[in-house]
Specification:
9 helices
Length: 243
């Protein structure tokens, strides 16, 4: 990812509607399979600038790992201490080290040569019965200008993630899309960018406060659905499995 993208992420990921809302979806899925009241030893694989790592501390003790020194520097500035530099394809941890693992918007990246290789590493560092939750940008045909800056190699469907999990030895537990309500608008935007050469504000631009709050509320409402059912389409793909 471009260094400038890390700076932007650091500045907006605590206030931008997408980050705030999509974390609610992740939390809803995790709470389906993590025992209430228990403190888990959790790995945030590809922790970036640390905003989600902070959020995950509600589940227990969280270690963040990322390959980018720039990202880890931003994460440290949030007060995070349990940070390690390393690749998701070769995690610098012993076998069966963690109770749970999350990986959000990492496997899509051109720095990850093989998705199954990364998933196999995730299974290696999880204890038997450990939970993994993956989220990736969905549908390769939805590539846009933002994908250039974040070095997108692939966008993945829920089916892609489930297939990869099974090949890595996971039991697949659940899968769903997220950000379904805004899916038609995103399709229209990508179409206009591609065919009409129109320019729109960057994907991580924080909109006016009322708009930001409304969009966050839409994603938060989806999280209530994610507790019991799967959404058939959306801008992000989630998959959850057990080692």
């Amino acid at each position: 990812m471009d260094a400038e993208q890390y700076r932007i992420m650091y500045e907006v990921e605590q206030t931008h509607w997408w980050y705030r809302g999509i974390r609610r979806n992740a939390e809803a899925l995790l709470r389906r399979y993590l025992a209430p009241g228990r403190s888990y030893d959790l790995l945030d694989a590809g922790c970036g600038t640390g905003g989600t790592t902070v959020f995950l501390q509600r589940f227990g003790v969280v270690t963040g790992v990322d390959f980018s020194p720039e990202a880890l520097g931003f994460a440290q500035s949030r007060g995070l201490k349990r940070l390690v530099r390393g690749s998701v394809s070769q995690l610098p941890f012993p076998d069966q080290r963690f109770d749970a693992l999350t990986c959000f918007d990492v496997l899509y990246h051109r720095g990850v040569a093989d998705v199954v290789e990364g998933l196999t590493e995730f299974r290696r560092v999880l204890r038997p019965g450990g939970i993994v939750l993956i989220r990736e940008p969905a549908f390769d045909w939805l590539r846009g200008s933002h994908d250039v800056g974040i070095h997108t190699e692939r966008r993945l469907t829920v089916g892609d993630l489930h297939t990869g999990m099974r090949r890595a030895g996971f039991e697949v537990l659940a899968g769903t899309y997220a950000n379904m309500v805004l899916f038609p608008l995103a399709v229209a935007k990508r179409t206009a960018e591609r065919w009409l050469h129109l320019e729109f504000p960057a994907d991580l631009t924080v909109p006016a406060a009322p708009v930001n709050a409304t969009l966050e509320a839409v994603l938060t409402l989806e999280s209530f659905v994610a507790r019991r059912a799967s959404l058939p389409v959306g801008l992000s793909a989630f998959a959850l499995g057990r080692a």
